Amino acid sequence: MSNLWLETFLGKVGKYIIMFVNGDVKYFSSIPTMLILVTLIYGIFLAIASCNLKRIEKRVIREIIRQAKVIIDNNPGINYVNLINKIVIDWQELIKKYSFFPLISQESGLWVNKTNVVNVRDNIMHDDRKMHLILDRHGIALLEDRRQVRRNLYLEYIHRINKK
Length: 164
Prior knowledge:
By secondary structure, the chain is an all-alpha fold. It has eight helices and two strands; from the N terminus they run ααααββαααα. A two-stranded antiparallel sheet has the order 1-2. α2 (33-74) packs across α4 (91-98).
């Protein structure tokens, strides 16, 4: 009955993880318990560091959206470059206010970095197009974007493959 419950709720992999932790399988019984504890503690440590970065990133995105809406309301004919130049993020204040752990980590990363302005900015704004993506996802369209015809990237990709 318990095997059926394990396979139903955790799947086959979950069942093997429970067997690994309990040391039920002869292949897993030779691994010391300390190694398992260190691995679990480090996994929890990485999860907390990743949640810290995600929390800071959400607040940075909210600040970008708030500032962009105010700037566009004051100057509706602004172009993208001027909008980006007018958005100023106080990284130090955001980190001080919303960071709950002294370290940050990417979601799938195996290493942690100290929570400071340089590391947070590099992890969040690692791509130049990130700001444009944030504005686009939250429905902030500039006047120049509204004038353009939106392209269907899927069809362009298919035409490029078929060379038609």
